[in-house]
Design brief:
It contains 26 helices and 21 strands. The chain is α+β, with helices and mostly antiparallel strands and 717 residues long.
Amino acid sequence: MSAEAADPGAPLRRRSRPRIDLRRLGRVALRGPVSRDRLPDAISHVAEAHRAHHPDADLTILRRAYVLAESSHRGQMRKSGEPYITHPLAVTLILAELGAETTTLTASLLHDTVEDTEVTLDQVKEQFGDEVCYLVDGVTKLEKVDYGAAAEPETFRKMLVATGNDVRVMSIKLADRLHNMRTLGVMRPEKQARIAKVTRDVLIPLAERLGVQALKTELEDLVFAILHPEEYEETRALIAAATGPDDPLETIADNVTHTLRDAGISAEVLIRPRHFVSVHRVRRKRGELRGTDFGRLLVLVGEDADCYAVLGELHTCFTPVISEFKDFIAAPKFNLYQSLHTAVVGPEGAVAEVLIRTHRMHKVAEAGVVALGNPYAQDPAAPPQTEPSDERADPTRPGWLSRLLDWQESATDPDTFWTTLRDDLAQDREITVFRTDGGTLGLPAGASCVDAAYAQYGDLAHTAIGARVNGRLATLSTVLSDGDTVQPLLAQDTASGPSPDWLDHARTPAARIAITGWFSDHPDEAKPDPETADATGPGTRGEPAAATEREAPARSRSGPRPTGVVVDDPNAQVRLAGCCTPVPPDELTGFVVRGGAVTVHRRECPAVAAMQEIGRAPVAASWADGEGRESDAGCRVTLVAESFGRPRLLADLTEAIATADAAIVSATVEPPSEQRVRHTYTLRLPDAAGLPGLMRAMRDVAGVYDVSRAQHPAPTG
């Protein structure tokens, strides 16, 4: 195994050419432009790399861009002492190696001309067209990054807004940062550290989210060398010591190659060395490194189906490590990454990690959005647009980037944007949850139903009252898992707003900014209303929700008691909570709400725990005479029946209710979802003793698979 492949100074491509010599290029650049019929020697490396990905590319525009860039930057020098033209040349070569299309390379050559020279955008537009002008303008608007604390938020905000409008702008910016990091040695150590920290905190996560792994890994190693020099040198020594003829991965790679050849599968098996930071992470995770920990096997095939054929052969002919299997082809990562991950046990118990992907998947895995070409090119078969639009439709834009554009507009304060951005970038894993309409939502790991509600409905989520996760009712604080199906439930009252405690459950910037913005517009609602808190818990709408106007009247010890409830305070008005509709012989707990009234809940009601968490003292409550009997007025209860859809279901359920001598106060039937139907009935029974029999009778109705007491507001009749 070659330690050079893991070195930050190693070339980016698998079959790469030597890195350009900046000193030689500087001398070439100083000679000035060449004749119109010749490609300047200074960009011959760029042309070679570009033609490797785009054999039919027209290099004329690159020659003209170089001539303009060289003449406009002539006389300018970098801090390293090299002519300034070497910088845009190096940035353009990085992008050419990744497979960027001609327009991006042209803009890269010119990306500093408008800001640092006398060249104007009008000149760029006149000579190179609208697309190149758009990209150069986008990079120019980022301005030079001032690494002072006050300048960072607004600078990076501009950067990200420009990125959202055209991902190629960020591609140029990332390549620009990579070249600057490669040549950072001419700066003072304290400035190196300051730039490295910003690169680590913002640009590396951005490269990850844009899928540009080749840039991300080299930036990681360069930052590692600056911020952790001792650990970097230790890692370098470990990699150097592991380099030798007895590489266990070589043996496993040979076995895999023969296995696939015997199976008739055309595949290319490569050893992919880990970069420095990756080796360092494995060492911290496992302690002592194994011989196979310094790299992974990469199997490249032609078609998606071949990936699964390779997986089947490997799991058949080798002992697989099942816990290491991940399918990112069926469920791609949020940054467009696709691959099969597995691990197999080779000779003498050596475990090798294996990546299986097509050649195109590999190109996208390395270069991310850079490998997608021009996502804004007009399809010749598509009808022409009748009206111009400022928004550039980008079907390849990663979901995270699309969401970024939505929430950054709501964060008018740059510091809020900066803080929220860094929190979001710190999320190193994303999950995919499914909507009931078949769509998907990409959310950070640890996201809750609150996040799903705002991701799906935007500001309409202010009226959320709960959710259904995998077909079952769930609270808004429920943490979602990868692959869950979630359906946020919204109230009919569009004037209602969120609860302050939703911020405790929100993980996404969109949710947090929307909730914070709502309370900024409604300052009087910032503190939980005692009565609402009692009804809905500590501000988590839809958890133990119960609207006070839906509470049934009860009486204190001092007056008549139609529901047979007594509390310690003889003068308090007593109400039964609508969220759990307690009936005898339920055990009871009460809480004092606004106006001195006592709202009585079942002890297992989620509202009880929620009220105790916020420090509300419970009030002792019990059924009259301890007999658990109601008066002649009967009892009221809300039941939820969940069933599979079928004809006459509603008629059979109402017949079962009527047979149990229960009167229907109100009923709602939600629209069928995935062949499932949810019925909610508020009923009045002559005696609570009949409740278990009623629930059994409803469960016996064909198609009904669950009947339960409601834990959320029931609609009134």
